[in-house]
Amino acid sequence: MAKAPRGSARRQAAQDRRLRPSGFDDLGLRRAISDRLLPLLVAAMAFLAALAFAGALATATLAEHWRQGAAAELTVQVPSPTEPAQGGKGTRLDAVLAILRADAGVSNATPMSASDLGDLLRPWLGAQGDSLALPLPAVVTVQLVAAGATPPALNERLAAVAPDTAVESADVWATRLSALARSLQACAAVALMVVVAVAIAVVAVATRAGLSARREAIEIVHGLGATDSYIARSFARRAMRLAGLGGAGGAAAALPVLLWLAFLAAPFAEGGSVPTADQPLIALPLPLWIALPALPFAAAAIGFVTAEGTVRRWLRRLP
């Protein structure tokens, strides 16, 4: 069988390109799936997803910081601090401080001043809290070397020189902070799942509306031999581009909001430093810098998979 001349093949290919140029929209998808409504709705979902993820991350980070801080602190109350200690080693407060500062598990032991103690009592006792006739115990704040590493037999050693000395840890508050953090993280995870479900529903509804609007054209193309895969992939690529565009818009809109929230939360984080105006970008943690650029790709993947599945189910019902 003789082969067609190479020049004839080139002319035929050029004629095909003229009859059906590259990117020809034979299904009318530009009219089927709006390039305004779908990106706007997906952008709103991406914005909410970014806020939900940031909330979960911030909750975990701050709660861990506070929990570690609470677990690494002790409060020692010394009644009658100016009375002589057992064994004649100065006052009771001096003896307690000597034991605490000599312990290898204690990094710092600082007695609270009378003014600081008055500030603590003022919310409950009012302005007259500083002039009470009742003797107040001395309060020593203790910083441990490691969280939860309470020095062994500390109560017994302190009681030996200053009876009735009380050592209080913040384990209860640490437990409550952990429970609160887990609850908030669960709420953020549920919110994120709801946002993803709504995004899937939005893409599915937009795709079904496009199928209804272009039903006749799809049936004609399908009758002329177009496969289900071709039609489904055409819709899926259109939905993928629009969803990715919306995801990029939502991520861009969420960035200044997250920077502002991180700026406000900086004093409560590690170090307690406030970001300066010329260093705003360091306020966001690394996972957020990874998650924000990933939002458009996630939205595009959701758009592609949802649209393709919706179209394939719709095509199976055609006669």
SSE arrangement, N to C: HHHEHEHEHEHHHH
Strand content: 5-15%
- Nearest-integer average pLDDT: 77
Secondary-structure class: alpha+beta
What's the gyration radius in Å? 34 Å
Overall 3D form? rod-shaped
- Unreliable stretches: 12-22
Keywords:
2 domains; alpha+beta; 7% strand; 10 helices; 64% helix; 319 residues
Short recap of the structure:
By secondary structure, this protein is an alpha+beta fold.
What does this structure look like?
The protein is α+β, with helices and mostly antiparallel strands. The protein has two domains: 183 residues, no CATH class; 85 residues, no CATH class. 64% of the residues lie in helices and 7% in strands. It contains ten helices and four strands. Strands 2-3-1-4 form a four-stranded antiparallel β-sheet. Helix 3 packs across helix 10 and helix 9 runs antiparallel to helix 10. About 3% of the residues have low confidence.
